[in-house]
């Protein structure tokens, strides 16, 4: 690698680090919220691709406008839990969450596990762990 390439790589590293460092608490929280949204939306996009569905199809199924859904997927509008629940129901999927400690990268055992049993009554139960 020549000297110009090394300088360019270092400059890119500095710019990348500036995106994630030196942020106010509010900026950090906003970034975290967008990363959370992206994790859910990327899974939904994979399902849409596998099923050959468009976002317009999904918008119709969840009774919202295609433009709103496009804005959500582009990150211009926040994804809320009601919309996420509608998508989950329309696509007949279920998200499973786990909690990990940032420092140790170990899974944190939670006290309650919520499961949804698919029956005629479709009830939600909570079990102690």
Q: Can you describe this structure?
A:
This protein has 129 residues and is mainly α. It has a domain at 3-92: 434 Repressor (Amino-terminal Domain), CATH 1.10.260. The chain is 54% helix and 8% strand. It contains 5 helices and 2 strands; from the N terminus they run αααααββ. Strands 1-2 form a two-stranded antiparallel ribbon. Helix 3 crosses helix 4.
Topology diagram in text:
Elements: H1 3-20, H2 25-50, H3 55-61, H4 66-74, H5 81-90, E1 112-116, E2 124-128
Antiparallel strand pairs: 1-2
Labels describing this entry:
129 residues, mainly alpha, 434 Repressor (Amino-terminal Domain), two-stranded antiparallel ribbon, 5 helices, 2 strands, 8% strand
